[in-house]
């Protein structure tokens, strides 16, 4: 169990050592806010984003920063809660910070996005996958360095249809923006393919006993379960299903791909299927980036480390090109393409990546993952 760093006020997380040596230059640093959960049950996702953003900033500062200015990361907690999203946004705006990596969770991102957009703050989320963040919003300042649920959902459904080939599927979700959204996408694709979805059921995030839904799974003769949501609930579903003698394959989105699921599920986690961003850390072109992570004892192959790294890369490249001006940076992000740890990326008009590679992995009880064969 990791110990999350807890921040109750805005605290500079990176670059303080350099700033303390150069007090005059400190005010001229280029500041980027990381809006992440540093409290609540989803802090490990915040840690992933912090590792990626911190590594990118450290590498940029070591290379001289931007035109003599150092980059400074500022961590702001939103607990991954929709009601905290606007509060965090107002903290960023009051601190006069023009750039954000985050928010991490879709619900908090959706709640905060109109505030950032109206105030001209450039947001690049490395992890919020809900289409509702960008669809029909006409935002100019909101971007993401991860694919959408309607890209991830089809990847999961395609695997279920072509590889898992179940007879009776249950689709379960946590009733939240992210979980229910991706669960709906998977269910719809399965139905179109003629797969028998016998149950579409919501559970309450944060509950400790899911025996009622497990009983429903058993009584419906389900042989495959897709769960839309995060790792705490997935871990309990896996463990309690095993305890009740329900032997089914379970699959989830990148929100369940977290080492802490092992602590909750125990051995029942073995064989869990998860859609994740492709393992960009395995790309030889990222060798120097991977080494920078490893030198700091950070994990470059988690779900959001390299999407966060790429978010910072894109922001810094834009600031280099057009100056420290959020309006010009937003324009540049829309027009340009960027060579990042994810490969060459670019955005469409509404701030979504033009393409993104989700893959299916099999999770193991030792916390490792391997590409899923079936």
Automatic annotation (TrEMBL):
The keyword Chloroplast does not apply. Residues 30-367 form the Leucine-binding protein domain. Keywords: Amino-acid transport, Signal, Transport. The keyword Signal applies. Coiled coil: none annotated. It comes from the Bacteria. Pfam families: Peripla_BP_6. Residues 1-27 form the signal peptide. InterPro entries: Leu-bd, Leu_Ile_Val-bd, Peripla_BP_I. Belongs to the leucine-binding protein family. This is Branched-chain amino acid ABC transporter substrate-binding protein. It comes from Acidovorax bellezanensis.
């Amino acid at each position: 169990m990791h110990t999350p760093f807890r921040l109750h006020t805005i605290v500079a997380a990176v670059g303080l050592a350099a700033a303390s040596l150069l007090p005059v230059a400190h005010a001229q640093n280029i500041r980027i806010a990381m809006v992440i959960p540093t409290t609540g049950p989803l802090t490990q996702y915040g840690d992933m984003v912090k590792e990626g953003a911190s590594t990118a900033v450290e590498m940029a500062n070591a290379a001289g920063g931007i035109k003599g200015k150092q980059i400074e990361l500022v961590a702001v907690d939103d607990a991954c809660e929709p009601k905290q999203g606007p509060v965090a946004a107002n903290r960023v705006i009051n601190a006069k910070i023009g750039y954000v990596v985050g928010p991490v969770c879709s619900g908090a991102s959706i709640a905060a996005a109109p505030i950032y957009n109206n105030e001209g703050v450039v947001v690049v989320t490395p992890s919020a996958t809900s289409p509702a963040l960008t669809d029909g919003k006409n935002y100019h300042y909101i971007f993401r360095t991860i694919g959408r649920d309607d890209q991830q959902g089809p990847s999961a459904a395609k695997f279920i249809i072509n590889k898992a080939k179940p007879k009776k599927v249950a689709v379960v979700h946590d009733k939240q923006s992210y979980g229910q959204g991706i669960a709906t996408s998977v269910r719809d694709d399965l139905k179109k393919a003629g797969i028998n979805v016998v149950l579409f059921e919501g559970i309450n995030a944060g509950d400790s006993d899911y025996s009622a839904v497990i009983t429903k799974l058993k009584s419906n003769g389900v042989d495959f379960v897709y769960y839309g949501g995060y790792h705490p609930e997935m871990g309990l579903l896996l463990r309690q299903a095993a305890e009740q003698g329900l032997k089914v394959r379970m699959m989830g989105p990148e929100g369940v791909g977290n080492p802490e699921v092992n602590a909750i599920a125990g051995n029942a986690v073995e064989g869990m299927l998860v859609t994740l961003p492709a393992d960009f850390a395995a790309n030889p072109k990222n060798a120097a980036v991977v080494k920078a992570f490893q030198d700091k004892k950070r994990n470059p192959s988690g779900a959001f480390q390299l999407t966060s790294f790429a978010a910072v890369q894109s922001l810094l490249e834009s600031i280099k090109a057009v100056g420290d001006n959020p309006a010009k940076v937003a324009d540049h992000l829309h027009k340009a393409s960027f060579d990042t740890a994810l490969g060459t990326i670019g955005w469409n008009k509404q701030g979504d990546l033009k393409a993104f590679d989700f893959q299916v992995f099999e999770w193991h009880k030792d916390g490792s993952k391997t590409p899923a064969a079936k």
